[in-house]
Amino acid sequence: SFKPAARIAEIGVSEILQIGASAAAMRKQGHDVIVLGAGEPDFDTPDAVKEAASRAARRGETKYTALDGSPAMKEAVREKFRRDNGLDFSVDEISVAAGAKQVIFNAFMATLDPGDEVIVPTPYWTSYADIIRIAGAVPVLVACDAANGFRLTADQLERAITPATRWLMLNSPSNPTGTAYTEADYRPLLDVLLAHRQVWLLADDIYEHIVYDDFRFVTPVGLEPALRDRILTVNGVSKAYAMTGWRIGYGAGPAALVKAMAVVQSQSTSNPSSISQAAAIEALTGPQDYLAERREDFRMRRDLVVDALNAIDGLACPRPQGAFYTFASCAGMLGRLTADGRRIGSDRDFCAYLLNAAKVAVVPGSVFGASPFFRASYASSRAELDEALSRIARACNELQ
Ligand code: PLP
C-alpha cells in the first residue's frame, strides 16, 4: 500500500483548499455560496502585461532561460528595488523562481538541516511552517498578541532565539492579519538580530503595494544595512499585478545564498516560465499608475468589510494597514446557540455555522495558528461583499 515519506507525513492538504472544496460541493448541490477565502486579487492581469507575454511567445522566447531568471528579468528586478525601495542589488544577488513560494522553498531547502529552527510569528501563512518541515527543520511558532496588532516584539524574539535558530520569518503586510510593520516596529527586532549572528531574516514583502491610508511601506534591509549579509527579501508579481497564475516571484540577498538556492531550483523546476518572465518584466518596468487605483479600490472594500463586521454584536475587527484580508475576533460568539441548539465552541464552529446558515465561506483563525478569529478576504466584488456581509449579520443575529 502507499506509504508517504516521513517528511510529508505530518503535512496535511491545506485547510483553506478544503474549505474551498466544501463550498464548491455545496454550490454543486444548488446552494448559492459566497467564498471570502481568496488569496488573490479579483482584478485581471493588466493588458500591457498580457501583450508582452504574447509578443514574447511570437518572438520565440519559448526555450529554457538562465536557471534563476533571464538577464532581462534580473535587470527588471534590480530596477524595481531601486525605484520602489532605494536599494541597489547586483545581478548575482537576485533569484527568480515560480512564485514567491518557490523562492522561500529554495531558501529553506538550501540552508536548513535537521534540528535547525526557524522562528515564525503567528498568526502566519501556513506554508511557512510546512516548507520548514519539508526541509527537515523545526518551525518555532511564537504567538503574537492581538493587542499589539499581532506584531512580534523584541522581547518575544529574544526569548525564542536558541543556538539552533537559523532564520526569523517576517511578513509585512501580513497574510492573514493585514498588519504591517513601520520602521519603529522593525527597529527593535533588527537590533535583536544584530546581536545574534547565526540568525538570518527572511522578509516576505509580497503585499508591499497593497497598503492603505498614509502607511509607508518599508523593508528591513533598507533599514539596517549592517544586516544586508543575512537578509533575504522576497517579493513577486502575484498580488501587486494580479498575476497569481503566471507564477513569478523573486528574492534579493547575499550572493552565496542565491547561488545555493539556484542549486535547489536546478534539480526541481529549472527556470521559471520564459513567457511569464516576459510578462513580469513588463509588470515591473512598465507604467505603475494602476497600482494606486487598485489600492484605492481595495481600501474602500476594506472599510466596507471592517465597518460591517464591527456593527455585528459579538465581532471585533481591527482595521488592517495592508493586504486584502480582515482578521476579526469572534470571541463574543463563543457560547452562543444556533437555532437548532448547537453551541458555538470555537472559531472553527463559528465558520462552519456561517457556511451552513449564511452560505458564506471564511477561514477560521486556527488554520493560521490564532483563535478565536476568522479571516475574510475582500478580494471580491462590492456586490458580493455587500451580500455576504448582510448574510453574516443575519446569521449572527440569529444566534442566541
Ligand atoms: N507569501 C504570502 C504571505 C502569501 O500570502 C502568498 C500567497 O498567498 C505567497 C507568499 C506566495 O505568492 P506567490 O504566488 O508569489 O507564490
UniProtKB/TrEMBL annotation:
InterPro entries: Aminotransferase_I/II_large, AspAT/PAT-like, NHTrfase_class1_PyrdxlP-BS, PyrdxlP-dep_Trfase, PyrdxlP-dep_Trfase_major, PyrdxlP-dep_Trfase_small. One of its GO terms (molecular function) is transaminase activity. It catalyses: L-aspartate + 2-oxoglutarate = oxaloacetate + L-glutamate. PROSITE patterns: AA_TRANSFER_CLASS_1 (PS00105). Its cofactor is pyridoxal 5'-phosphate. Its EC number is 2.6.1.-. Keywords: Aminotransferase, Pyridoxal phosphate, Transferase. Residues 32-392 form the Aminotransferase class I/classII large domain. SUPFAM superfamilies: PLP-dependent transferases. Coiled coil: none annotated. The keyword Transferase applies. It is an enzyme of class 2 (transferase). PANTHER family: ASPARTATE AMINOTRANSFERASE. Belongs to the class-I pyridoxal-phosphate-dependent aminotransferase family. This is Aminotransferase. It comes from Aquamicrobium soli.
